[in-house]
Design brief:
Length: 122
């Protein structure tokens, strides 16, 4: 059975690029346009990994990570931040919120897939 990955980014083109790479590697993908949209789509189904942008309207990535960690069903789901932010302070904030990895855009799809394969839940 395919593993499910939630991709959260306000850029439709970025969601498409990430989605193509993940689907090509055999994953199922749920897409959301911001943190609030993503929370609305987390309805109790098994999600093996989440990939989230940091800078988004409505709910940013750090707030999204904090909100996800409050939900028992998703508390242990690994979250990868995929962002243009490369400042150490932002990374520290993301890690403190519960993010497991930080991938800086622009990224190579195989680089992202490597991170996904390391972190995705069994």
């Amino acid at each position: 059975m395919a593993k499910t990955i939630l991709v959260v980014d306000d850029s439709a083109s970025l969601r498409q690029v990430v989605g193509i790479a993940l689907r090509g590697a055999g994953y199922d993908v749920i897409e959301a346009c911001d943190g609030q949209d993503a929370l609305n789509k987390l309805t109790g189904q098994k999600v093996h990994l989440m990939i989230s942008d940091v800078n988004m309207p409505n709910m940013d990535g750090i707030s999204f990570v904090k909100a996800v960690k409050q939900r028992p069903a998703y508390r242990f789901t690994p979250i990868v931040m995929l962002t243009t932010e490369s400042q150490e302070s932002k990374k520290a904030e993301g890690q403190a919120a519960g993010a497991k990895a930080w991938v800086v855009k622009p990224f190579r799809p195989e680089q992202m897939l490597g991170v996904v394969q390391k972190l995705v839940l069994p």
